[in-house]
Queue: 3 jobs
Job 1
Amino acid sequence: MIKAGIIGSTGYAGQELVRLLIAHPEAEIVWYGSRSYVDEPYSRVYGNMFKIVDADCRDDDLQQLAEEADVIFTATPQGYLAGVISEDILKKTKIIDLSADFRLKNVNVYEKWYGISHKAPALLREAVYGLTELNRENIPDARLLANPGCYTTTSILTLYPLIREHMIDPATVIVDAKSGTSGAGRGAKLPNLYCEVNESIKPYGVTTHRHTPEIEEQLGYAWLAGEYEKEEGGAWNLFRVGQKEYEEGNAGGKKALTISFTPHLVPMNRGILATCYASLTGNYTEADVRAAYEKYYGNEYFIRILPEGTCPETRWVEGSNFVDIGFKIDERSGRIVAMGALDNMVKGAAGQAVQNMNLMFGLPETEGLRLPPVFP
Amino acid sequence: MIKAGIIGSTGYAGQELVRLLIAHPEAEIVWYGSRSYVDEPYSRVYGNMFKIVDADCRDDDLQQLAEEADVIFTATPQGYLAGVISEDILKKTKIIDLSADFRLKNVNVYEKWYGISHKAPALLREAVYGLTELNRENIPDARLLANPGCYTTTSILTLYPLIREHMIDPATVIVDAKSGTSGAGRGAKLPNLYCEVNESIKPYGVTTHRHTPEIEEQLGYAWLAGEYEKEEGGAWNLFRVGQKEYEEGNAGGKKALTISFTPHLVPMNRGILATCYASLTGNYTEADVRAAYEKYYGNEYFIRILPEGTCPETRWVEGSNFVDIGFKIDERSGRIVAMGALDNMVKGAAGQAVQNMNLMFGLPETEGLRLPPVFP
Amino acid sequence: MIKAGIIGSTGYAGQELVRLLIAHPEAEIVWYGSRSYVDEPYSRVYGNMFKIVDADCRDDDLQQLAEEADVIFTATPQGYLAGVISEDILKKTKIIDLSADFRLKNVNVYEKWYGISHKAPALLREAVYGLTELNRENIPDARLLANPGCYTTTSILTLYPLIREHMIDPATVIVDAKSGTSGAGRGAKLPNLYCEVNESIKPYGVTTHRHTPEIEEQLGYAWLAGEYEKEEGGAWNLFRVGQKEYEEGNAGGKKALTISFTPHLVPMNRGILATCYASLTGNYTEADVRAAYEKYYGNEYFIRILPEGTCPETRWVEGSNFVDIGFKIDERSGRIVAMGALDNMVKGAAGQAVQNMNLMFGLPETEGLRLPPVFP
Amino acid sequence: MIKAGIIGSTGYAGQELVRLLIAHPEAEIVWYGSRSYVDEPYSRVYGNMFKIVDADCRDDDLQQLAEEADVIFTATPQGYLAGVISEDILKKTKIIDLSADFRLKNVNVYEKWYGISHKAPALLREAVYGLTELNRENIPDARLLANPGCYTTTSILTLYPLIREHMIDPATVIVDAKSGTSGAGRGAKLPNLYCEVNESIKPYGVTTHRHTPEIEEQLGYAWLAGEYEKEEGGAWNLFRVGQKEYEEGNAGGKKALTISFTPHLVPMNRGILATCYASLTGNYTEADVRAAYEKYYGNEYFIRILPEGTCPETRWVEGSNFVDIGFKIDERSGRIVAMGALDNMVKGAAGQAVQNMNLMFGLPETEGLRLPPVFP
């Protein structure tokens, strides 16, 4: 059994980790971390866990936790992990970080978008970006795994084959994303009150949302990979090479990749939908595009390429680790509309974290994650 | 592997059966019945099942299905099963009926409340009422299992210990129940449109809802059981004896049990909450009442008696087979307010059906049902 | 033009007062009070008022406000008004209090249920209870008007004719009420977050909700009135006499009136539904009961007695000052189920306050309030 | 008093017309048309109108209605009005059509996008497009007014100043729109059921939605107007000239205007949000863009240009005729994100229809429409 500790177990993402791990046949939770509820029964914080979880919440003590756990999940605010992590801890345990601390390779980009200084930049290079389907080969050996953001996972997976195959012009990419309210966290803030969110939709963080550089960096790797393969051929580790170029300021290779990303808040609990627009670089048909998606995702259990004419809807993935992707070519405008949907709490956070844990511990990737979506 | 067939698999309850059975380690679905979608891929009717269920929908053919399946679930309109069932079929397969056809023992009561004539009254006696926790000993041998209604399960489980122990006056019982909209089914009817249900709450079926006599009958057994035990002592099969008395028109024994039951439609997908009121028959304390609940439910996995001062909320049971029960004594009025919550699609329909299937096939009762509630 | 000031104008009830008063042809708002947003533009707190309200929020200064306003609305926490009101202020201006400070006549009852000491008990006698339809004759001369609670208005109006006519047994009254979330106010509290409220229904304040004694007191007057009329005959001022008896501890006259009241939180913004149960005192028919409702409400603009077989639904009153009432006699149990619905923000708070203001300033009672309900 | 008749008064848009017209001081409704509910009381179809509307629904009889009404609103399916309208009728009464029959000037475009043949193409030229703020000078004399679509009004008003001033490249315009569910109408269709819409967001009609050519045509006029003004100067009737060019196939003038338009269904009753993207044609600052919006909308009552940094949210316009517009320049990508929000039932349908009625009958444009938005 894998002994897992969770720091930040009483946030929504932390609680979803609890839901997934207590049902996981090869894992057990040994530490329910929560600074806000120290010594309170976990099931008093989350009534759904009554008679399922008996433990009390414990304070944050990464040192002690590293002694007790084989893996630590950090579902914490930005900056926390970078402030407490150390080589010593990484020698004792593995860390899967659901915050943004180790997602971006370039510390300047991090500090610019997040507005805080990074306390452990030396570990940025080692950290492995955990978008499982795209970085699978690098995950098993990771000590420090940077689990991607929810908007990020949706946007990248939806656009990746198109970018990698250079079927779309990277200068034209627009991602209009919509998220359920659990993505805003469990903080008691006025804008997240029921009556403020219900019966309304709003954009927020327009042009400034922190997931933007993460999407650009990863899609930048993908574009580079396409260039390398054309020019040099041969097998190629997307992220290792991509990261190197990126660190050297060569992001996106010979072509700039600057997306417009607009998140919206939707009156629903779970789900993210990303509607992505880009100009096609050629007269591609539905079959051409489908072939590209099949090439990269044809064998993926958690990615479902929808039949022609079908658009993803968040209701069909709720509660599961699936990503649904559909697309439509617009011949009038020469654009493609590519759409992806997932559950922000599962594939967008806790589910992908468990997927990565499985790889890091030599388990089948889908272990504990073959939950059918719950509808309605 | 248990071969299961579902008639009515494209209704909400049918689809929930699909969700539970495909994740069940000892069952496989061999027949996705749906008169409305014959030959259409099941996953086109329910997009959540894309790449999970490959089968097409099949027409209703109980004879053929009885050849292929070890158990048939009927999630069908009232009257369907009674019209097609036969001794021949029951010799070949077991039936778990999610409709109301075999829930009431008295055919006159059925025909009065449902407004249709019963086509198979001879089987009423044999049918076993599947409120698992209360009728567990009779379920393993059942050929025809009448799976209880959603409102019914909530109301009966909430009130049972109080009635059985004669702690409340059965003449004063009021059940005010609130249900999510999935209980109204997937029929394309104007009152169930999003804009009609959203941002509103309404009572319906006031004094005439069909679950009323089912609640009264089962609580009537419970009251009788209390009488028998006091007067005669000894072990006692609640439902076998209760049914007999009930068939003979002796329902509720020496004291009439006529409840007021009012269902309400709530703008949410899942969940039922029953707020029950009754006058206490003595000066019972919180501890007295708690002891009664513990006596009957102390060892039940799926029934969670909440701590003092905690009321059930439907969010804490969503997606699971749990029933949460809380209560509060009102010294001012001499009444008790007992409250129960469950997921109408799971414990109120498909989950309890699987729970009963487990018993009927000698499996652990919780097999495939230990799903933690999904929140938020 | 009536000059109106609002203390607590940035709560939900305060904002609804703003909405109603700016559309009122005979009123203008001269003071947008809000301790939390002093000097901020009101329209930044409530974006709906952008380009409609130009004023900034002002601090609470009842003395100054009394100089500037003809009427002051206090939409404030319990205890605030009692702590600052004075004879001096009442000589200068009228006060319509949306808090509970002056609703109960008996200071002991207030202090017991609200858990705070009352700072101005001497004014309790003078304060006029503003359930407009039932106390209309006393409102025009009021200096201090106690505007009823939202649950209270619904429950009392629904039950009043039945109690007044002694058609139901006051010892059997149960009120099961359901409210939208705006009733919980705009405080940034975890239980009111979108994801906590959405997709769930829960009871709260079971047996202890503060609106309970208010309902009991007012229905107690009604019962008394019935007694007086039978025994003594003649015209009779319900509240003046009722209050006197009540103050003397003779509440409910010769028969105790102790209700069970259970509020529930529903995932919707607005609306209250009260489902009321009571045993009938005779074999009353639908027509008998209807006659009673017509007797008291037949000429009321804001009370709509629904046709036979129709139950109130909150969607049909949203945004308006209407109260919809329906009922159903249950011959099986000898009970009546009486149901009332209103918009908790309008008739349950700001609308009734304006209705009372109209009477206090000699205007037609419906002035500024003939808004049709908004659907969907 | 203007005598108004409504054909299709029992759809959602029809009902909203009823709500607005019964509160309108200069109008009265003389005909509640509804083929589905002939002879039924209108208030039984819409319970909110109980005791407000006494009339029964009447069958569709345009001839008779033309005798009785000064203005006829048609809130009917596409093709209906074109099939029954005649010069004779237009001589007797004015028509405000909420369907799409007379919105597009080019009959081929209509027939291609709507898939039906147009029965009255001769009237296309006469019909006046009723986007009030942009076509105000042509509306007073209209006999046949084509009231714009909901998505259309939002998209056009949001983009108009930018297109008119040639500040954005028309070849780069993307409109990602989100609508509440009332826009889908009151038809009893499975996809509109509560449980199908709730807790989900989905795109639909991707690249094929019928509002696309309407947006393109009107924005095409705007672009042309910009060209004309630059090249020729002088006063200029946007729509008269624009229409002429457009009819001649010269849409968009010397530059093609082909937008990508993607509507989404959001789990809320009312509201449309359009998030629009386009590449700027120069290094425009926030102040430049704001000046353009002020130039065209500075004096508009119903258009609110939000302060810098503020994005529109549908909750702030609900129930009102306002359009809220905000924008953000993205220097990184050289794009602008312009966002507009309105209530699809009011400014997107019935409210704008009444606004046009006011102009057609010489009333102040805001008569009956100065309703503050209802929140929450």
Note: The first strand of chain A starts at residue 2 and ends at 7.
Job 2
Amino acid sequence: MSTPSNVGDSQRGTHGVERLTERLREFADDREWHQFHTPKNLVMALMGEVGELAAEFQWLTPEQSSRVLDDPAAGARVLAEIGDVMIYLTRLADVLGVDLVTAATDKLAASAKRYPADEFRGSAMKAPSQT
Amino acid sequence: MSTPSNVGDSQRGTHGVERLTERLREFADDREWHQFHTPKNLVMALMGEVGELAAEFQWLTPEQSSRVLDDPAAGARVLAEIGDVMIYLTRLADVLGVDLVTAATDKLAASAKRYPADEFRGSAMKAPSQT
Amino acid sequence: MSTPSNVGDSQRGTHGVERLTERLREFADDREWHQFHTPKNLVMALMGEVGELAAEFQWLTPEQSSRVLDDPAAGARVLAEIGDVMIYLTRLADVLGVDLVTAATDKLAASAKRYPADEFRGSAMKAPSQT
Amino acid sequence: MSTPSNVGDSQRGTHGVERLTERLREFADDREWHQFHTPKNLVMALMGEVGELAAEFQWLTPEQSSRVLDDPAAGARVLAEIGDVMIYLTRLADVLGVDLVTAATDKLAASAKRYPADEFRGSAMKAPSQT
């Protein structure tokens, strides 16, 4: 596993999702922003940030998109947008009382059943709807 | 800090973002899906999942949105969508070589400077653009 | 039917979707931007603009959202974002060879069958999935 | 100008945006759905539909995205999603009292000034922020 480009080795693991969750809570407390942070509003904020992230990638070829961090200006914008998306997703999970990593792990387990490796190898086909 | 509704006390902290990152990598490896997982494609997938999450909240009042997990059917859908959003965000960070929590923590530090608590207390105003 | 706030009576109807489609095509031709305007890229651009529109509404109460045009600055931003969304949607329809109003009218007919007025009056419930 | 693939010649132009706007208003009236159709809620619904549209394109290459209508099943889904996006955009414009085509035409005029053809020919660069 390679070291991410935006973190020194010494930092790795020192900031978990729980610590981030607490910091975001303090940040909102200090500014009395809880009143704005309903789940519905946070989903809209999340949408806004994902939209800004999309704008960074919209005209890039697939190959260019893989090298987006090589450009210092575009790379800094992409990092900031990914940070913003993670901020609102973490905040949304917190106000709903949801553990983010558990939600993802549970969903991954469901996807593993829905998409057996042998059946979907190399295929971008969608599995039939689960109704 | 209250316990999230979707995690038992014993599980808490056992699944970090790094472990999730590794599981998602294995999941993609097993299915030979790396070819589809360019940053550009993953941003689109992220957007699709955020759109599904938005659809769960679109007609709710602010108050209803705060109680969305009380309804078993809607609650399960919201948990699954939050899981999907986290899955694609984690996968995007991985293929770009970005540490997700560090990106969020760095962005939060920038926001703390941009929005001094004393100046923005109780206000939803946007700070002037940073150009 | 009341007159929209951003159009004089004399203008009404002089700009149809077809005229807009042609203007957008000329605009792209003049700048040699066809190379960027694949359906996939235009969907991402559409997402980016809808995200910017969402950002204008994210912290508003339902009531404030209904009066958003009353504020000159926010109103101008909302009008510009709606314009941008329509621009990319029209352009997407054009490169795919789709008639936008017909697509909407056809979908509306399908929704009218799926949501009989007597059954769904006053209800925000979603109809069961059409599989 | 080629004929769109989803419209017969005889239909062309018979359904304008104004007629669509009226039909959508009747549709909402018949179901007493006005209560749900605040601008904020409609922006979320718009986002949900754009997310579904994005999901159709997420794993496609640029070339595949240009031929998406050639596949009957995927093509029908794309047409339906484009229809849904247009439906919510038209409805949003109506509840805000905005003329959709005028908003787009005005924004295009602003973009023409911001992106002079001679300066931005063949370039996907973003113009500097207008502050």
Note: Residues 9-15 of chain C have pLDDT under 50 and may be disordered.
Job 3
Amino acid sequence: MTKLTAQAAGTFAIAPTPFHDDGRIDEKSIDRLTDFYAEVGCDGVTVLGILGEAPKLDAAEAEQVAIRFVKRAKNMQIIVGVSAPGFATMRSLAKASMDAGAAGVMIAPPPHLRTDDQITTYFKQAQEAIGDIPWVLQDYPLTLNVVFTPAVIRKIVMDSPSCVMLKHEDWPGLEKISTLRGFQKDGSLKPMSILVGNGGLFLDFEMERGADGAMTGYAFPELLIDVVKLQKAGKRDAAHDLFDAHLPLIRYEQQPGAGLAVRKYVLQKRGVTASSAQRKPGATITAAAKAEVDYLLSRVARVDRRANLQPQSSAAG
Amino acid sequence: MTKLTAQAAGTFAIAPTPFHDDGRIDEKSIDRLTDFYAEVGCDGVTVLGILGEAPKLDAAEAEQVAIRFVKRAKNMQIIVGVSAPGFATMRSLAKASMDAGAAGVMIAPPPHLRTDDQITTYFKQAQEAIGDIPWVLQDYPLTLNVVFTPAVIRKIVMDSPSCVMLKHEDWPGLEKISTLRGFQKDGSLKPMSILVGNGGLFLDFEMERGADGAMTGYAFPELLIDVVKLQKAGKRDAAHDLFDAHLPLIRYEQQPGAGLAVRKYVLQKRGVTASSAQRKPGATITAAAKAEVDYLLSRVARVDRRANLQPQSSAAG
Amino acid sequence: MTKLTAQAAGTFAIAPTPFHDDGRIDEKSIDRLTDFYAEVGCDGVTVLGILGEAPKLDAAEAEQVAIRFVKRAKNMQIIVGVSAPGFATMRSLAKASMDAGAAGVMIAPPPHLRTDDQITTYFKQAQEAIGDIPWVLQDYPLTLNVVFTPAVIRKIVMDSPSCVMLKHEDWPGLEKISTLRGFQKDGSLKPMSILVGNGGLFLDFEMERGADGAMTGYAFPELLIDVVKLQKAGKRDAAHDLFDAHLPLIRYEQQPGAGLAVRKYVLQKRGVTASSAQRKPGATITAAAKAEVDYLLSRVARVDRRANLQPQSSAAG
Amino acid sequence: MTKLTAQAAGTFAIAPTPFHDDGRIDEKSIDRLTDFYAEVGCDGVTVLGILGEAPKLDAAEAEQVAIRFVKRAKNMQIIVGVSAPGFATMRSLAKASMDAGAAGVMIAPPPHLRTDDQITTYFKQAQEAIGDIPWVLQDYPLTLNVVFTPAVIRKIVMDSPSCVMLKHEDWPGLEKISTLRGFQKDGSLKPMSILVGNGGLFLDFEMERGADGAMTGYAFPELLIDVVKLQKAGKRDAAHDLFDAHLPLIRYEQQPGAGLAVRKYVLQKRGVTASSAQRKPGATITAAAKAEVDYLLSRVARVDRRANLQPQSSAAG
């Protein structure tokens, strides 16, 4: 596939890693999931991110999962999360993924980084470790516990010619997008793609602030795709109307920790994956939560028929 | 006023502290804010919480603000946040507030608590410090950085006869409510009120899980009141319909740090407070954010006419 | 008293706050403690620091303690810790202390500060709050959980004409002193006093790296005074010989949390304070720990006879 | 080799991982280091701990290093640190190490664990992942950021028949040893070995509180061995005399982060390893720090001639 560039835009799904109920990797569901993302119109897929339970895989499994996604994707770019406690592991996975045809890699900071210098030094060394592979900087303080100022992001990006994208998921984060776009206007920051995450909770306004698209794991990537397209077409009210219809479920999925169980449940309900199992340590979804999700789906379906999962859900509801 | 009991229910607004633009306390706006909460039908008001910028007041100011609210409230119970780095300060404010007629106090844990023992010991000592004053336990890990298990909450509550309420704002938190209500069913936890916070982001389902009401700072307490009542009346769909209409704004207000600026902006726009100023260190609201809030208000107003602030907002916008 | 300047040097004792066994402030012991510090030759005393259990006092008590120390001290400068969750409280205590004759105040960062900008902005606002009062910047990441780079310290100091001293207690911290002194050599940092804390655990080498003296709570300030003087006189081996004799006890006192109980025990044993009580929440010292301290004292006393506390200790051991 | 049991005692060195200057693993230095530990009389060696820069190795390298140590050790037990972000990686390394002849493995908690339940659940799942391999529980809050109460340690140990040892390095930690030994006396905790770490900073008293020995990385394991033996022989004063002579250097080595550079420098100076290089991200040792270490060594050597490295150090200094 073509490599990731600073012109990347649209919707990249964050993929969960499908497991069998006993914890083994479910390769057939990886294929089906990849096909699903392609069919609904995703521009790319990001694998082995936080949502992908990456740290629960050993090194061989991580390579296996990354390569399976890459081989199956046809017109979609695959980005591989290569965050690791050390640069040796990061480099190994990055090289294996790119050799198999990945478009780029994504790097999140380790949780102990505090000062601006510690942060910029870390990413400088990470870049040295992976060489000239195109990479995505992940900015997700809520989960990663590292706080980047806009100026720190600028320094990281300007220090690394191969950093082509920001996965923006600070919260609150609207002003950050405006500030970064302002840096580009004043010439102090080179062009780069900004895709937004944080479960899509602010996608409506993030597009208006200058984001190029979405990169997150909401179990209806169709919604992300539509909102991104409507906003780019200047159809503001229509974008918000559709977004608002999904927001109750988006919000429910964006619960820290618990959200993954919801997403795996919905994807299974949609028939995309065979099981909703997580590897240990993982969260499960209670019967009460399933009923709440089913109720939310039925409410979304009043506006967006794609959320009507009744035929498949007869037993689960 | 009557003291707070374990039978408390309904909607308690979390009040911001109104300041003049130069940072002085705005007592007239305290009065107007109190009247506003009474007029819309709040059952009570909680003052000097996190939203109330309590740590920015010195001891004399904190007493002054608490007493002003207490004196102005007529049929509403006032709960005073007395969280403090030390028990001497906590005790002083708690006594002064109760002497003035407050219904109870609220205590949040200091951020360094880690083990179950550290947490339960802290609240045991806090209870000793304030004596038999009815108090509310605040459980807000996202902001307070202290994690309570349901069993720890049970121990704190069972160790303290005067702990009558939980301000529940864990996230995710739905299962926690179910677990605590289960403890009461199995007889291991005494009756206690559970009011939910976290900006109201999950109020719809929290009521279904067994909450007694809401205690949060959303700038339309009318919405909280209505959802609580509709859910108690068993009108589930109507509750969700109304809630969902407000959710885009609820979500916007629930941004950590930035949310207070939004709330003060909306309350000022509603004519309740004279200024939206915060004391330093505080967040401000940009013109872009104001425009976003105005847009959200106009969208909410399509369903809930109380959000139509156009006439009043000509100067404030 | 004269105000604190960037030329301050020598030994400033960090004073514990003496309490009666029932938790009331022990004013007579404050007087005796102040006299003791003067008699052994301290250049100054810092009160209401972390060691002084400052957060456990309410606002009136904090003023009372600060003023008592200030009034009693004759030729010694008193620095008052004014760290507080908000600037209103900080300002009140700072003004009251200076009005009573304090030499300056000390400010530590609140624990939530992360980025370089957050840190420098906080101290800029703190300086605005206290006006032109001379102040000490406290850099103690182990306890305060905020990490300053040397460049951040430089920016804080250069932005504030009235910041005259650094209380240096980073760990490890030797290179930081060298870097800051290097900044002064290259002209990018103005003259400022650097006194070292962290229990004195590295005082021996910190003096060689360029510190101006000690500011810490070791229960034998005589040792700090002697090591500072010997190092300034160029008597390196003698400084280390004396320091090393005390190091086993210095280390024992420098245990986080537990150290204060040890110090209060030793000061009581030395006859300086009436009680070793702490306010809740506080640590106590077990019989086993007392016996260990007594043993350490007896070993120090083989080299430094001032540690021979046998006559007074017959009952306490 | 024989497997690790609850009767383990004496001194286990924590081994650094030797690298060439360019970051490659230095296998010859692994051999020499293993021989060195055997020659001075260590009872065992722990590899791939925090000191061993384990997270900087990829999976293949970690196995390679562990096996190299295991194969070289003759009468010494090798414990392999298998802490990992996920159980799959933990299991892989544990199995490979045991197959090669390791005596057991060591597991530290991941940094996000907070409540007692989270901690005990994690170790229950870790135990399931590694099966019946004997394992060591590492309790090191200063670095690992997870706080265990004695009761939590008891629960972990009682839930896992194969947990045979505690690597105790809480700080302060003396009372914790006494409490755990008390649990054993009252019958609520099974027999287990307690070896102490934290750089050896409290080894003198920890032995008196009931520790079975030392497991730490001080560059003179001879000192650890001697103090453990003297204390077991009841020669208290002699143990402290020797310990105190080394304490200035022990303290210097125990600086967080910087300490590893000091240890690698001393081991290189002793002729045990070829290089003092660390993999990135790593600390370096300045010329000033080297001179300070040399000075400390010369002072230790006045009492303990093994610290006289003058002849060997002519080139390395």
Note: The longest helix of chain B spans residues 236-253.
